[in-house]
Amino acid sequence: MRTLQKLLASLVLIILAAGSATGALAQGEKRLAFVIGNAAYPSGELATPANDAGLIAQTLQAAGFDVVGARDVDQESLRGAYRDFLAKVSDAGPDAVVFVYLAGHGAQFEGENYFLPVDAKIANPADVPIQAVRVSDLTRPLAALPNKVNIVVLDAARPNDSPESDQPLAGGLALVDPDPNMLIAFNAAPGTAAPEGKGPYGAYAQALAEMMRDGGLSLEDVFDRTRLRVNEVTQGAQVPWDASKIDAPFVFFDRAPDAPPPQVSEAESQADRTREIRDFDAHDAYVAALDRDTMRGYEDFLVAYPHDPMAKRVRAIIAARREAITWRQTWMRDTPEAYWSYLKRYPHGPHAWDARRRLEHFDAELEPPPSFSIIVYDVPPPPPEEIIYVDRPVLYFDDPDFDFDPPPPVAVIFLPPPPPEFIVLAPPPPPVEVFVLPVPVFVPFPRWINPPHDIVPPPDNIIFNNIHNTTIINNTVINENNQAGQGGGLTTGQKLTAGAAGLGAAALATKVALPPLLQKKAVLQQGKQPGLVTPLETPLSKKLATEHALPGANGKTLPLVNGKPLPLAKGKTVPLANGKTVPLVNGKTLPLVNGKPAAADSRLKTLGKQGEVVTGQGTEVQTGKGKFRKLPAVNGVPATNKPTVQDKLGNNNPTSLSDQNGGKPKRLTRKDLAGETLVPNGQGAVFGNDKGKKLRKLGGEPAGGEVDVQRNFKVNKPNAQVLSTQEKPEFHAQPKFQVQPQEKRLEQQPKPQPQQGNKKASCGLPGEPPCKQ
Fold first, then answer.
1. Which pLDDT tens digit goes with each residue over 675-704?
2. Does the residue 73 lie in any domain?
3. 443 and 568 within one domain
4. Burial class of residue 749 in the structure, from the number of CB atoms within 10 Å of its CB (0-12 exposed, 13-18 middle, 19+ buried)
5. Are 364 and 499 in a shared domain?
6. Which of 727, 159, 195, 158 is nearest to 430 (CA)?
7. Cα(76)–Cα(455) distance, rounded to whole angstroms?
8. Which of 359, 379, 411 is the last residue of a domain?
9. Rg (Cα) of the chain, in Å, rounded?
């Protein structure tokens, strides 16, 4: 009986444990990421940060992160977007995994690191805390949340682009201590600056993405291998750095049981890390010291190989690290004695002017007094041979003055070679939308690499669902299950949605979502930028047809002309296909744009070329009565057997779409309209002189030039514009558009003012006299 009770108790415990495990699995691990790439700085655009941010964001998407990100953001947008992101992290609950990546210009000032928004204006060092975002303002609220893992990466240690000063800033980024459950990583060691790459991607972002994509690597391995790869590809010019206080196990991707065995086993790798530096040959000893990235490891190398070609480079690495540690401990104490102690060690060091600025806060003497209590640092004073490397504001590991030898290639025992498909990455298409990150060409993962099974899938993420395959749709790379036996692929719902929307939804899902604040700003800025206009497929302005429109056929309203309703011809409208009507002006039908009526208004122009005919355009012909203009052809065929022409005095007889296409509507295409001159319905006149009067020539030439278009002729407000090849044309209310042929953008020009003495009255509208035929 007792045995049966024990057995039942054991079963209950097993069931409860299984239920608990199932509940934990059902809850899953939520992964969230915030990615920024700032490149468009006023002082000069950087080549890689936007692309780097796009590459990291795409890798995080594949790893199951719910990613929001943007490029080229100002300070207000960056702070607001991050505030919204923190609220999202807080809502995710405990045990969330958070990744923050900032690429662009960084700076340090008086012991704090700052990230520069694109609107930062740094005229002198004191501008940094005002114009930039302090990194600790981002990390502290993140550390206060009960997250499982916080990863903060600053790809921002670049040459300082601020004006030269007699009190310069220290170069690179300042050494920091991470908060609990946090890892902080820099693209270059504290106090050093990385050379700016030429693209398409920076060495650090590409190496980090490579290591994140490898299955089963711990966070420590990911960043250690990133440091080795970057040092290798930059020939020693860049030495990344990281510090971690994360205890929880974490991997970006899992490695399947049937995966090929690694070239170096975990046991061998662990043995190499505990092996004495002196037990390696000089070649591998340097790589082993770099892999460990500790003061002791580098010093052990110098003890074992003081005359090796790499000894000079290792001394420079030690010099930068010793000075960074000294400054960090000085800044933490924050007393006059501490800053005097720093100046006694490094009178011309990178942080000498930071120390003097802090002394001014204490109203203390700037130079150390003859005697004071010198603080004790964790590192001994620098030997004389180190001072040469830190006797300046910033240290570059590729400085030609130091004549550094390039480091040896990394042995496979420390780092396997990169995957062949990830060595040279194609540049991403340039982004055309405001704030949106570039979308890199997606490199499929090997079939044995998969996201962990116990994470919460990110919403609307095609990349996450299809990391093993790739295809290109509408110039946007997405994944699709087109390789048998490799898993992944679009779900049925995604295929149906993509198919129904012309794969637009699928293409959209490959983009990194903008933070909500920037989504709103993007909508506002898109309308302000010249050349960013609404597409032809967008219905014509609703504003003109809502306030005072008259009812039309089938209960529909007619559009307005100059804010007034269009009149009817004999009280009727002309029926068209699908029960739609064409509005009338002066008893004549308006032509169509994409099968829809076009209003004869200065804001909404009728279009020339295929599918629409506007008189006054085309080739001049000579008759016995003078110059006339022949209507343009449609697909090489004359517009009509009996074309209506416009005489040289500007009298118009517009030809509608149905006249030239057998009475059937014909749809315009963007290709047909690109570069065409647009005028109001049937307006325009030949260019020439008739009794000394200027006329306007529109056909075949860009609109523009100073011409008198309203004097002495029956031409109603002939404002012209040229349709550019931009994706979203939008017709603005401002009069007169002028084209720059090279850029093919719409720009506003002032409207020519008519001479009062020759002004013709308008006609044909309510309250106005009828037009003479």
1. 444 433 334 433 333 344 343 434 443 334
2. yes
3. no
4. middle
5. no
6. 727
7. 33
8. 411
9. 35
